[in-house]
């Protein structure tokens, strides 16, 4: 009887755990976002922005949602650290890419890295969310402007690839990527002030639940 009740209790209180990785260039606001998520969802608040230094290695944070635990991994964005992102791809359930919408000078560098994330075969089927951060700043590009800027950048890149003799990708990869871009979710946030952060977490929560269901039915 005890075991039966224990089993039932475990079943009813069971929480599925999902890993979500937060990627982006250094300075995009990944750590600020992670700490804001912790502050919004946990009893013990995350670090305030004045306590956040450049990320060396990784930061993690867990939040509890109904029958779900989301574990966030903020991986550093410096060039050297980016080389290890792929090690996390196999085990993640969603990817968040943070772009600094205020830093126009580094947008194309940000898209270059975003493109490599988007093209990674291990995460082709994984929900991907693009966050246009720093919306509190009057200098920031809006969500629409960010989407257009990326599409323009991508178009230019395709054209220059067509002109060059050596093509890295086949037609199928290009089509798969086009579909991914067309269905890409872009949201505006201010990691500093917290605006839009709950909407982003809600989106992730729903998407990881849905992809788990698809897994079961396949
Ligand atoms: N105005 C503004 N600044 C932000 C925001 N998010 C992060 N920052 C600032 O951007 C800088 C880099 O943030 P950080 O979280 O360390 O970036 P990371 O390298 O991607 O982890 C810091 O000075 C942050 O205070 C935001 O939403 N708005
Ligand atoms: Mg950081």
In short:
The protein is of the alpha/beta class and 218 residues long. It has helices at residues 2-13, 30-41, 79-82, 86-89, 107-118, 143-163, 171-182, 197-217, and strands spanning 16-23, 58-65, 68-75, 94-100, 128-133, 185-188. It is built from eight helices and six strands; from the N terminus they run H-E-H-E-E-H-H-E-H-E-H-H-E-H.
Ligands, deduplicated:
guanosine-5'-diphosphate, magnesium ion
How many domains, in number, for the residues?
1
Give the helix level as a range of percent.
40-55%
Largest sheet: spatial strand order: 2-3-1-4-5-6
Look up the CATH topology.
Answer: Rossmann fold
Beta fraction of the residues? 15-25%
Count of alpha/pi helices: 8
- Radius of gyration based on Cα positions: 19 Å
Shape: globular
Secondary structure: elements and pairs:
Blueprint: H1 2-13, E1 16-23, H2 30-41, E2 58-65, E3 68-75, H3 79-82, H4 86-89, E4 94-100, H5 107-118, E5 128-133, H6 143-163, H7 171-182, E6 185-188, H8 197-217
Parallel strand pairs: 1-3, 1-4, 4-5, 5-6
Antiparallel strand pairs: 2-3
Helix pairs in contact: 5-6
The structure holds guanosine-5'-diphosphate and magnesium ion.
């Amino acid at each position: 009887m005890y075991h039966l009740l224990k089993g039932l209790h475990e079943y009813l209180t069971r929480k599925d755990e999902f890993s979500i990785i937060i990627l982006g260039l250094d300075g995009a606001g990944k750590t600020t976002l992670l700490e804001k998520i912790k502050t919004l969802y946990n009893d013990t608040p995350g670090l305030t922005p004045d306590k956040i230094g450049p990320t060396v290695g990784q930061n993690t944070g867990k939040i509890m949602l109904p029958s779900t635990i989301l574990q966030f991994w903020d991986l550093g964005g410096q060039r050297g650290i980016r080389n290890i992102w792929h090690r996390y791809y196999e085990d993640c359930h969603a990817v968040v890419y943070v772009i600094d919408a205020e830093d126009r000078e580094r947008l194309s560098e940000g898209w270059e890295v975003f493109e490599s994330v988007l093209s990674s075969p291990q995460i082709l089927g994984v929900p991907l969310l693009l966050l246009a951060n720093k919306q509190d700043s009057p200098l920031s590009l809006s969500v629409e402007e960010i989407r257009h800027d990326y599409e323009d950048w991508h178009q230019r890149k395709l054209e220059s690839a067509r002109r060059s003799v050596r093509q890295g990708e086949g037609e199928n990869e290009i089509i798969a990527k086009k579909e991914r871009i067309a269905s890409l979710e872009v949201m505006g946030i201010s990691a500093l002030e917290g605006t839009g952060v709950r909407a982003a977490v809600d989106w992730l929560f729903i998407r990881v639940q849905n992809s788990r269901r698809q897994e079961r039915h396949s």
